[in-house]
């Protein structure tokens, strides 16, 4: 399969004005990603997008938004147009037609890697404060932006997160669940769907968000913090954005400190009310449930163990979190 991926990558790169010197596989998660070096010294990331996750209009909309974010001063990926001036080309991989996009490569460790290399608690809090500032910049731009005609991204609202056909899949039917867990998660879905529907989607709390802005998706290139991976970007709650940033630290004793630093950083550039902050635990629970659906829809990634950890998180937190809404 890896040889087939590489052949597809080499084939689709002919759509760009490059003289490829080296290409190697970087990751296989949501998309198949390669690093590409050309003879002129340029470095790029080639993404072969999962065929059923976003259609071409949605992918073009991603580039439209990141262009607007760059214009607003947010350091985000820079796409490379094909010879024909298009944002994407297409190629067949394992009998699947995939859209391929090319971005300029950005060197540097992720914010998470930097945090792991420095165990000073104050430094970790500073990183989350910077992450909060980035979020505020993104939300300020999206709140002021006039959405152009034809712009299409998913809505991570009550239906998109906890509906009958949620964006990341019917998590309560995951094959990694035990028999008694399926009805329990189905009941949680119905309860949380009602809570989210009551919350509403007012512009002050809901808008165009990155939706995957955790420390592994921020690169420190030595001069700026560069935000990557807008693949999940769509319309959602700001509280969900905050929760996603914290989701990898669910069992970390520093979680509360990280949350406080992130919100402090955010408030340097954008107001956020205490009610939004108070809903972060709810959206941490939502993220855990939705992630069970994400893993179930991608069996080739073999995340059965991760599903078990997610179920444990749900079991540990659901009663306490939902008690606030009863």
**Global mean pLDDT:** 94
The count of domains is 2
CATH topology of the largest domain: Aminoglycoside 3'-phosphotransferase, Chain: A, domain 2
Number of E-state strands? 11
The CATH architecture of the largest domain is Alpha-Beta Complex
Beta-sheet strand percentage? 15-25%
Question: Which segments are poorly predicted (pLDDT under 50) over 5 or more consecutive residues?
Answer: none
Biggest sheet descriptor: 6 strands, antiparallel
- The CATH first-level class of the largest domain comes to Alpha Beta
State the order of secondary-structure elements, H for helix, E for strand.
HEEEHEEEHHEHHEEEEHHHHH
CATH homologous superfamily title of the largest domain = Aminoglycoside phosphotransferase (APH), C-terminal lobe
| Helix run count | 11
**Which class do the helix and strand fractions yield?**
alpha+beta
Rg is: 20 Å
Q: What is the distance, rounded to the nearest whole angstrom, between the alpha carbons of the first and last residues?
A: 50 Å
| Proportion of helical residues | 40-55%
Write down the overall geometry. globular
